[in-house]
UniProtKB/TrEMBL annotation:
GO terms for biological process: peptidoglycan metabolic process; proteolysis. InterPro entries: Beta-lactam/transpept-like, Peptidase_S13. One of its GO terms (molecular function) is serine-type D-Ala-D-Ala carboxypeptidase activity. The keyword Hydrolase applies. The lineage of its organism: Bacteria, Pseudomonadati, Pseudomonadota, Betaproteobacteria, Burkholderiales. This is D-alanyl-D-alanine carboxypeptidase/D-alanyl-D-alanine-endopeptidase. Its EC number is 3.4.16.4. Pfam families: Peptidase_S13. Residues 1-25 form the signal peptide. Belongs to the peptidase S13 family. Gene3D superfamilies: D-Ala-D-Ala carboxypeptidase C, peptidase S13 (3.50.80.20), DD-peptidase/beta-lactamase superfamily (3.40.710.10). The gene is dacB. Keywords: Carboxypeptidase, Hydrolase, Protease, Signal. It comes from Ramlibacter agri.
């Protein structure tokens, strides 16, 4: 057979294969259809995309060009954009300044701490920072500890504004000097007829109840019976009781006076490590011309995005998002970071970028199409940044937000997202012979929380693709 004929026949065959794949991509796999029926999720509330990570036509494309609310899957745009714009080894520096001479262990002036958006200044790292201050020979500060939080210029934020749950840690607001996500852990331990209460970290000037009476009955909702009263943030009260059947429990919550959290926690930590403070911990600016005594560095971005994506940490994602404009424009603002991210998207992918509000997905305004998510995931797979990015996603059945799943363990790395009426998954499925597929599945519907069995069916189907 002449070469031209063979080439023509191969071309026709290739076109036929592509056409068949394109046609197949218009529908959902039968097992996914069945799972959606069982969940009573209508087809027009679900968007699905499956395509090869290395490129090629989609295997499933159901409502792939429909803009949807992605919930926390929006963090993929923030974290991958940050990897490209800042680099995986980028860190945040928190400069510490000393004003005045040190005589016999006493600083005759102020200590200034200038926040620059570090997303992971948790308690053990704050301890290290303050120990560095003591290593300068300072054990007593005759002046104040002054907190410069001016690197971000943000409007006041009501932690109850999103869903009326101001004490939920996911509603904590970002700030230039974010410490420990502005959260506390209340541990309740039954002992005799009472339950002992311990709180970490300590907050200067805040009184917590030492104990709460035990009650009989089953351990169901144990938080409501505590009858916690946070109306006076400096004096917390528990007027109820705790079910003895619960054993030890820990309640993670956001401190009810978020603006006071960082000053209170720094004052307490300084005293806990043996430091003395004659003045107070207050807000202020670093004096012009004063040079830092040292700079305290954060973990690298590649490590930070693992916490963000695996555990869907909203305030960390917002810190990274605001850093985009801080590094580009000198001050971190919401609109400045939206502008940076939109510009990056247009240059990288072309077309209209996704709608971003705060970079975390904790929003009713953010939207993206499954095809846009597919574009991003394909670009990430082909990038030298791929190992850091994929490693940040929850491993199905092993860690992060997917650690409790017991089906298809290890077969996928998927970012999850959930809000009322929103459920979303996006990431990579591991197929046979080393193949990788991109999977995106989103439901925007009052029954969206029932999407998971359909996603499990889709993962199973995708993992068996040739």
């Amino acid at each position: 057979m002449p070469l031209s004929c063979r080439l023509a026949r191969n071309f026709v065959a290739s076109v036929a294969v592509l056409a068949a794949l394109a046609a197949a991509a218009q529908g959902l796999p039968p097992e996914v259809e069945q799972a959606l029926d069982s969940a009573q999720l209508p087809r027009d509330a679900v968007s699905v995309l499956v395509l090869p990570a290395e490129g090629g036509p989609p295997r499933v494309a159901w409502r792939a060009d429909t803009a949807v609310n992605p919930a926390s899957v929006a963090k993929l745009v923030t974290t991958y954009g940050a990897l490209e714009l800042l680099g995986p080894t980028a860190t945040w520096s928190t400069p510490v300044y000393v004003e005045g001479p040190v005589r016999d262990g006493v600083l005759q002036g102020n200590v200034y701490i200038r926040g620059q958006g570090d997303p992971k200044l948790v308690m053990e790292r704050l301890w290290l920072l303050l120990k560095r201050v003591q290593d300068l020979g300072i054990h007593r500060i005759a002046g104040d500890i002054v907190l410069d939080r001016s690197a971000f210029a943000l409007p006041p934020q009501d932690p109850a504004a999103f869903d009326g749950q101001p004490l939920r840690p996911y509603n904590a607001a970002p700030e230039a000097l974010l410490v420990n996500f502005k959260s506390v852990a209340i541990t309740i331990t039954p002992q005799g007829q009472q339950a002992r209460i311990s709180v970490e970290p300590h907050l200067a000037g805040v009184q917590w109840p030492a104990s709460v009476p035990l009650a009989r009955g089953e351990c169901g909702d144990w938080i409501t019976p505590l009858r916690a009263d946070f109306s006076k943030p400096e004096r917390i009260r528990f007027a109820g009781s705790f079910p003895a059947a619960c054993g030890e429990k820990t309640w993670q919550l956001a401190y009810p006076d978020p603006a006071a959290y960082t000053p209170r926690v720094i004052a307490a930590q300084w005293r806990e490590i043996g430091g003395e403070l004659a003045g107070q911990v207050r807000d202020g600016r670093v004096p012009a011309g004063l040079q830092p005594a040292f700079e305290f560095a954060s973990p690298p971005l590649a490590e930070v995005i693992r916490d963000i994506n695996k555990y869907s940490n909203n305030v960390m994602a917002q810190q990274v998002f605001l850093t985009l404009s801080l590094r580009d424009k000198g001050t971190g603002t919401w609109e400045g970071s939206r502008e940076v991210l939109r510009g990056w998207w247009r240059e990288r992918f072309g077309g209209e970028p996704p709608v971003t509000e705060n970079g975390s997905g904790l929003s009713r305004m953010e939207s993206i199409t499954p095809r846009q998510l597919g574009q991003l995931l394909q670009a990430a797979w082909a990038s030298p940044l791929m190992p850091d990015f994929v490693a940040s996603l929850p491993a199905l059945g092993l860690d992060g937000t997917l650690r409790r799943v017991r089906q298809n363990v290890g077969l996928a790395h998927l970012k999850t997202g959930s809000l009322n009426d929103v459920s979303a998954y996006a990431g990579y499925v591991h197929g046979p012979q080393g193949r990788r597929y991109i999977l995106v599945a989103v439901a925007n519907h009052p029954r969206a929380a029932q999407l998971r069995p359909a996603v499990q069916a889709l993962v199973d189907w995708t993992a068996r693709l040739p």
